[in-house]
Write a structure and sequence with these properties.
102 residues; mainly beta; SH3 type barrels; 0% helix; ribosomal protein; rRNA-binding; structural constituent of ribosome
Length: 102
């Protein structure tokens, strides 16, 4: 069971965006894409076949999963635990003991 899933509210704990909050968009391997975090400027050439104009565009880049942590209701970073409740394995926050939705 993964500790961080798509749609979870996270906080960045290291790197240039340290302290920023956002929701997880995708997870692939050990990398996560978070909305509004780790945006870079990319220079693009115009492509008349694809009807794309050239210029500088903002692009989201992935963050390593070790650089993010789940955020609790107070906005602080927290760890995640698992326990069995009603015969199902559920995730809960270590700081507030709140159960995360499936």
């Amino acid at each position: 069971m993964n500790k961080i899933r798509k749609g979870d509210e996270i906080i960045v704990i290291s790197g240039k965006d340290k302290g920023k909050h956002g929701a997880v968009l995708t997870i692939s391997g050990n990398y996560v894409m978070v909305e509004g975090i780790n945006c870079v400027k990319k220079h693009c050439k115009p492509n008349p076949i694809k009807n794309a104009t050239g210029g500088i565009v903002s692009k989201l880049m992935p963050l390593h999963i070790s650089n993010v942590s789940l955020s609790d209701s107070n906005g602080r970073a927290t760890r995640v635990g698992t326990k069995v409740k009603n015969g199902k394995k559920v995730r809960f926050l270590k700081t507030t003991s709140a159960i995360l939705s499936a």
